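Colleagues,

For the teaching module next term, I've prepared a clean inverse folding example: a structure given as tokens, and then the sequence designed for it. I'd like students to try predicting residues themselves before seeing the answer, so please don't circulate the second half yet.
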């Protein structure tokens, strides 16, 4: 068979295989949000097996990384780590290592040790009352990414203070979406998407398509992507309205205050773990400094927009401009 005939036969075989795939989707609540999985599988039993395995992995990671669950690995390890080094799982080590890397790159604009502050602001939103300066200062004294220490050789962690609290809410969902997608891929399903609120991870394109169509923030941009992760963080998603101001759920570690600027960041990477942390970091840094942080990391692209005085100011990173976009 000559090369042209072989290529034609190969394309026909691929098309026939793609045509045999069926679309399936499933939805379950985890980590305080809904996890949605979309995939293309040869039959329903294969899809069900993939859904069950992926959601089981999500459940496992929720039990390890949650700051809401008193008996999670994260909370138990943080309590014990003030007395002696504590060995941590591969998952927790991976998330904390990337978290500390982003903290170093942003001068602490991203910080998973802000647990005392996030809990303070959660209560403030429930009570519709601004935290007092004294309460914020007391919480800040128990925060600081330099008070968390990781030893990669022994895979252990230590913390400087006995009452520190870690919060992985700004990075754990991206990692979890990554891991759920890995489970699905390892079962032989190569076209899938895992969505956890604003965090997406996806593999090969749906049958007959160039990629997954992903809307970007509040813009009219639609990207066509494969084997990537996208994470969007908006400062106005959750907020406390007090005194005519909107205090975001995103906290600036430098001040202990919820962000006041109405900023939305969509970060794109091959790894959901990195994209999830980067969008929060860029939100805290603001448009220009946030974009500079994104540009310095070759694994990141981003679209950043901020609303002020009825105007929208938008910035695109150089790598974002090179991504494949289509009109809606």
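(Answer key — instructors only)
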């Amino acid at each position: 068979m000559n090369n042209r005939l072989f290529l034609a036969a190969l394309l026909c075989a691929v098309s026939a295989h793609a045509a045999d795939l069926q679309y399936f989707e499933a939805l379950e609540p985890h980590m305080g949000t809904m996890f949605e999985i979309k995939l293309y599988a040869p039959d329903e039993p294969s899809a069900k097996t993939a859904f069950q395995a992926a959601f089981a992995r999500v459940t496992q990671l929720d039990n390890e990384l949650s700051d809401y669950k008193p008996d999670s690995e994260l909370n138990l390890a943080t309590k014990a780590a003030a007395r002696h080094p504590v060995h941590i799982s591969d998952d927790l080590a991976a998330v904390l290592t990337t978290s500390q890397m982003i903290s170093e790159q942003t001068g602490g604009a991203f910080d998973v040790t802000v647990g005392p502050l996030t809990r303070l602001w959660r209560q403030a939103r429930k009570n519709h009352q601004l935290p007092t300066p004294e309460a914020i200062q007391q919480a800040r004294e128990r925060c600081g990414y330099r008070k968390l220490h990781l030893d990669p050789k022994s895979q252990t962690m230590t913390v400087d203070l006995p009452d520190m609290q870690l919060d992985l809410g700004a990075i754990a969902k991206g990692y979890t979406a990554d891991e759920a997608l890995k489970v699905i891929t390892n079962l032989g399903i190569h076209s899938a998407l895992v969505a956890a609120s604003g965090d997406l991870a996806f593999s090969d394109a749906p049958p007959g398509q160039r990629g997954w169509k992903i809307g970007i923030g509040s813009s009219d941009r639609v990207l066509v992507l494969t084997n990537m992760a996208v994470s969007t963080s908006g400062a106005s998603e959750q907020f406390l309205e007090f005194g005519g101001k909107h205090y975001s759920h995103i906290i600036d570690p430098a001040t202990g205050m919820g962000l006041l600027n109405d900023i939305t960041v969509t970060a794109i990477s091959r790894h959901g773990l990195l994209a999830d942390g980067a969008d929060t970091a860029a939100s805290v840094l603001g448009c220009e400094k946030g974009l500079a942080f994104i540009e310095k990391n070759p694994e990141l692209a981003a679209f950043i927009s901020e609303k002020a005085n009825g105007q929208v100011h938008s910035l695109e990173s150089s790598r974002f401009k090179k991504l494949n976009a289509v009109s809606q």
